[in-house]
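Reading a protein record of the kind used here takes only a little practice. Think of the row as the fold of the chain written in a discrete alphabet. A record is reproduced here so that you can trace the correspondence yourselves:
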Amino acid sequence: MKFGGSWQILYQRRNNMTAMADPYFERFRHVRERLKNVGYKFNFEGLQHPRFAFPNKDLTGANFSRSSLFGADFSGCDLTGASFAMAKLVRCDFSGAILDRVDFSEADLTGALLKGATLYAANFERADLTSANLKEASVDSVIWTDAVLKGARFLGVDLRREDSLQGWQLLEARGLDRKLMPNWLYEDFQSAKKRVDAAMNKPPLQFE
């Protein structure tokens, strides 16, 4: 009887403590569910961490939106479904990384390394890829709408499945291969180049 009474007291105390903690746990659960709903596994939104180093890590679904990560190392990482929207990623290293369905919209990728990266359905809408290196990157169905590609290197990059690119975006890109461009994009590129050349009184660019 005494044991039963003690057990009831402990049980009641536990209930009281749970009731007191409920608001916190409910709020935590709400945040957790919100992140789950948008698909984020790790939430680093707004992170200010230059030289951030996480090579060869599983960061699928991570949220780095609005972060400032100058020179960060993401080489070899799996970042499938991650978000870098509006992030500052100047000179970051994404070499060999899996960047499928990654959101880079409005991100600053000036001088970034994306050599050998996998970019299926990645989103570069209004991103700045000035002088970025995409050598031998695997691209497929990428969103390039209004992306800045001045000085970007496309050596060995197959653009034949890229429907959102426009010729004018490639006017100052490097390493383009006519054989790896769809006819419509090549013709659009040539047309844009002729307009610029006519305005500047320059001879048209010739592909080898």
Summary: Confidence is low (pLDDT under 50) at residues 7-39. The two ends are 95 Å apart (CA to CA). The chain is about 25% helix and 5% strand.
